[in-house]
TrEMBL record:
The enzyme's E.C. designation: 3.2.1.8
Ion transport in keyword set: no
Major location (coarse): secreted
GO cellular component: extracellular region
One GO molecular-function entry: cellulose binding
Organism, as annotated: Bombardia bombarda
Residues of the GH10 domain: 2-311
Transmembrane segments: none
GO biological process assignments: xylan catabolic process
Domain of life, per lineage: Eukaryota
Pathway(s) annotated for this protein in UniProt: Glycan degradation; xylan degradation
Protein's recorded name: Beta-xylanase
Catalytic function, reaction form: Endohydrolysis of (1->4)-beta-D-xylosidic linkages in xylans
Length: 312
């Protein structure tokens, strides 16, 4: 029995992972990443981000992302495509700025039309807008190149452009620190209304779930927050789950329990479609000095592996 519930007949929820080219180049790691019994969904960790796909204005490079897409398809895995619009991780040509409102809107639309069009029919979901909110629920303003020039309309403009380019993809808003019902979660619910008021569709909310071992709310608290989104007629998913624990003093039993708590919350909510991990082996985690994932750096299964598999 693996991690991916979809590998069991009749089950619909997926357990997925992010991967990156560097992980694919490591054959021991890639053998784990392509196993459908463990992973039913793949998210490219960096290869679909703005600077990777449009390194110069109007110049698109799909080489690395296409390699990930082809491998996922060959492995029977659905794709969570990530991401189209983010305040962070933008290319120098874009950050240099100096674009007026109309020009930046056309850059935004052109990026989305090209990228979503290139992957049309291949992405189960797109994270259209990533991390637009501050933790207090206000929109990121001066820290976002998009907001600074376009204002709050950049968000519905992005969803509308994505819907036009691939009408079948599920379009998500994705953010962190809104796994519990706090000011930010409330702001995400309001944002759904704002996007729709503009006439654009939104189909899903992704909760990143970069969480800390020993500091996770119980599964009914997590589930009721998921349900509050679902009540607005969107699906929900945990999109980037990892549970940091210090490398010099890890609490692997608590980590295993916390993984089970998050997976249980998804299981409790019919509109929760799945859980994606942000990597799977501690060898390639993005978090420094931490052991946040279900496989150790030498590819042995940690207690978290068994607890996730048993929870579905
Ligand atoms: C991270 C990647 O894991 C790193 O390799 C990269 O250097 C920075 O981005 N929220 C997100 C992800 O939506 O795209 C981020 O991924 C982690 C936080």
């Amino acid at each position: 029995d693996g991690l991916n519930a979809r590998s069991v007949a009749g089950a619909t929820k997926y357990l997925g992972t992010a991967i990156k080219i560097k992980v694919m180049a490591d054959s021991d790691a890639n053998t784990l990443a392509t196993n459908f019994d463990d992973f039913g969904a793949i998210t490219p960790e960096n290869e679909m981000k703005f600077p990777a796909l449009e390194p110069a204005r109007g110049v698109f490079n799909y080489t690395a992302a296409d390699i990930i897409v082809a491998q996922a398809q060959a492995s029977g895995q659905i794709l969570r495509c990530h991401n189209l619009v983010w305040h962070a991780n933008n290319p120098p040509w874009l950050l240099k700025g100096g674009f007026d409102n109309a020009t930046l809107i056309s850059i935004l639309r052109n990026h989305i039309t090209n990228v979503v069009g290139h992957y049309k029919g291949k992405c189960y979901a797109w994270d259209v807008v990533n991390e637009a909110l501050n933790d207090d629920g206000s929109l990121r303003t001066n820290t976002s190149i998009w907001y600074s020039t376009i204002g709050p309309a950049y968000i519905p403009i992005a969803f509308a452009a994505a819907a036009e380019a691939d009408p079948a993809a599920k379009l998500y808003y994705n953010d962190y620190s809104c796994e519990k019902n706090n000011a930010k979660a409330k702001a995400v619910r309001n944002l759904i209304g704002t996007i729709r008021a503009y006439g654009a569709p939104i189909h899903g909310v992704g909760l990143q779930a970069h969480l800390t071992t020993g500091q996770v709310a119980n599964s009914s608290v997590l589930a009721s927050n998921l349900q509050a989104f679902a009540d607005l007629d969107v699906e929900v998913a945990y999109t980037e789950l990892d549970l940091s624990t210090p490398a010099d003093n890890p609490n692997l039993a608590q980590q295993a329990a916390d993984y089970a708590t998050v997976v249980s919350a998804c299981k409790l909510v019919p509109k929760c479609v799945g859980v994606s991990l942000w990597g799977f082996t501690d060898k390639y985690t993005w978090i420094n000095n931490s052991l946040p994932l279900p496989w150790s750096a030498d590819y042995t299964q940690k207690p978290a592996y068994t607890s996730i598999a048993d929870t579905w």
